Amino acid sequence: MPFYQSCDRLTELGQQILQTTWRKFPSLSPEQIALTWLVYDNPVVVNTDGALSPEAFWEHPIRGFQYRGDVRLYPASVVKLFYLVAIHEWLEGRMLQDSTELERAIQDMIVESSNDATSYIIDSLTGTTSGPELPPEPLQTWSHQRNIINRYYHSLGWEELTSINVNQKPWSDGPYGRERQFLGANYENRNMLTTNAIARLFHSIMGGVAVSRERCQSMIRLLNRSLEPADLQEFDEENQVTGFLGEVLPEDSQLWSKAGWTSRARHDAAYIEVPGQQPYLLVVFTEGEANAQNRAILPFISEQILGAIAKI
């Protein structure tokens, strides 16, 4: 069973938003977008410092809407949410020793979306390192080690995670050597996620039930984004707000998010609290070169969702 319940009103509003978006942006085809939208009714069970036990949390009904939410897509840097939870699971289970350097990498992976920091985190999680090509048998052993992150997520038993792949490092220029071997001749082993899978993981973080209450609080602090204009200007285009879902939010809103972008993808996953309105969680993926370069699509969708929340 899905972790949220479909709702006629959210479906009606969600479909209206998609139709409005396609009219506004003709370059965005129906096959180039995926979306999952959760709305939190009172009593709100997320961002409560983990007030509920995991059992009680997962029994609490959530309303949601999805469009192509179960379609596997390349996630760009949104995948770093999965490495964030995994590294905290490893630390909690004493599979890794905490260190100043590891904490620095965790912060830079989420706050700065650093690919170099993420590479260090994946090496730490898997006991593998990048390097020259490997012969078949050593590559098979290396690949098995790298897949430990996938095995962890499959072990959770969530139906949303059955088809995901989160075993690749993100790159600025591209993989070389054994990393290129591991991707496959046609990139068939690249990272793949669904907006439903991301929504469930983000939901569990905000609910305080991913790994532990204390570790969720640490993750939530890193995911918090400032909406102050001075802070946004300081980071220019790399602030994960401008050109993404947070851009159109009122300044007194609260935003927790992880964005991802490449030359062919522009994605965002966000939990949003606007004063006087119901909190909501929104994951939007857009694909295609023209759409990835268009910094107006995600803010437009976010603005439409914001307006729809007032009608629920």
Structure described in brief:
With 312 residues, this protein is α+β, with helices and mostly antiparallel strands. It is 43% helix and 13% strand. The mean pLDDT is 96.
Q: Could you outline the blueprint of secondary structure elements for this entry?
A:
Layout: E1 5-6, H1 8-24, E2 33-39, H2 54-59, E3 63-67, H3 80-92, H4 100-111, H5 115-126, H6 136-146, H7 148-155, H8 178-183, H9 195-206, H10 213-223, E4 224-225, H11 229-235, E5 254-262, E6 265-273, E7 280-287, H12 289-293, H13 297-309
Parallel strand pairs: 1-3
Antiparallel strand pairs: 2-3, 2-7, 4-5, 5-6, 6-7
Helix pairs in contact: 1-13, 3-5, 4-5
Give keywords.
312 residues; alpha+beta; 2 domains; seven-stranded mixed sheet; 7 strands
Describe this protein's structure.
- The protein is of the alpha+beta class and 312 residues long.
- The protein folds into 2 domains: 1-73 and 194-210 and 223-312, no CATH class; 74-192, no CATH class.
- It has 13 helices and 7 strands.
- It has a 7-stranded mixed sheet with strand order 1-3-2-7-6-5-4, with helices on both faces.
- A hairpin with a 6-residue loop joins strand 6 and strand 7.
- Helix 1 (8-24) runs antiparallel to helix 13 (297-309).
- The two termini are 24 Å apart.
